[in-house]
Amino acid sequence: MGAKPLVIPVIVIATLGAGVPAFAAPMGFAESTMLMGEFEPGAQKGFINYSLTNRDAIGFGGFRLRMDEGRSLRKYTEANYTRLVKRWNQPHAQANVWFMGGVGAYTADRQPDRTMVSPGLAVDWESTRLYLSASSRLYRADGINHDAHILRAGFSFYEVNYEETQPWFILEAQRVKGMTEGTEITPMLRFIHRRFFAEFGITEKKKIRSSFMVNF
After folding, report:
1. Which of 33, 124, 131, 143 is the most core-located residue (most Cβ within 10 A)?
2. What pLDDT was estimated at residue 69?
3. Is there a contact between 46 and 34 (Cβ–Cβ < 8 Å)?
4. Which among 52, 32, 38, 23 is positioned nearest to 130, based on CA atoms?
5. Measured between alpha carbons, how far is 193 from 134 in angstroms, rounded to an integer?
6. Class in CATH terms, 33-200
7. b/e per residue, 50-85, with b = 16+ CB within 10 A?
8. pLDDT per residue over 127-153, tens digit each?
9. What are 32-66's pLDDT values in tens digits?
10. Would you tell me how many other CB atoms lie within 10 Å of the CB of residue 187?
11. Beta strands in the chain (DSSP E)
């Protein structure tokens, strides 16, 4: 199967604070709205959420995937909740633990909708120059298992001021049960500027990926 993952619920960038660190978060600051999309051949994913506080957000999202060289279509739409479980502030870095959970309707090949649940955890550590993250999220429905596991590591090319755009190199390793063959590796470039980022990469199978985030 050549398709890529489900909605990726983590590794969203909200560039806040001096020095513009790669602040990894699946939600923005309190009372803000975050919009994210990801695109590649045969797959479109996205979500939007609203931060009720600086630790809690609610929203909805989903994916649309073409499997088996376009012969099979799978769709998932969910309502979700995000919680900042723990944060450690260091002199020049930050670490976080996140919980994400969703429930929604999953459809495959014109079959009846099935209820899918999607709990997950993510951890990250970032400074103005380095970034590490790991996430696991279970995507389960009756007879369906699309659990997603993602590791990311990267570095910025140089430090910038708050108003400037900062380029990053990110390497991602991803495995999604029933969706990817083994582990898929994607090197990518990321450009961060305050409340948005844009990301471009190509997998080892020569699939072009792009994504964006806007926090407002």
Report:
1. 131
2. 64
3. no
4. 23
5. 23
6. mainly beta
7. ebeeeeebebebbbebbbeeeeeebebbbebbbebe
8. 989 999 999 999 999 988 889 999 999
9. 999 999 998 888 999 999 999 999 999 999 988 88
10. 13
11. 33-40, 43-51, 56-67, 72-90, 93-108, 114-117, 120-127, 130-137, 140-141, 144-145, 148-156, 166-176, 184-193, 196-202, 208-215
| CA geometry: angle 74, 98, 56, nearest 5 deg | 90
170 pLDDT exceeds 90? yes
Closest among 199, 187, 198, 184 to 153, alpha carbons compared: 187
The residue type of 118 is S
Per DSSP, 113 falls in state: P
CA pair distance 20, 160, nearest whole angstrom: 7
Residues, the chain, total? Answer: 216
**To 5 degrees, how large is the angle CA 3–CA 8–CA 14?**
140
H helical segments located in 19-168: none
Residue 87 structure tokens = 């944060």
Instruction: Provide the residue ranges of all domains of the chain, joining segments of one domain with +.
Output: 33-200
The answer to whether the CB of 32 falls within 8 A of the CB of 51 is: yes
Cβ within 8 Å of residue 201, ≥6 positions away: 170, 172, 186, 187, 188, 189, 208, 209, 210
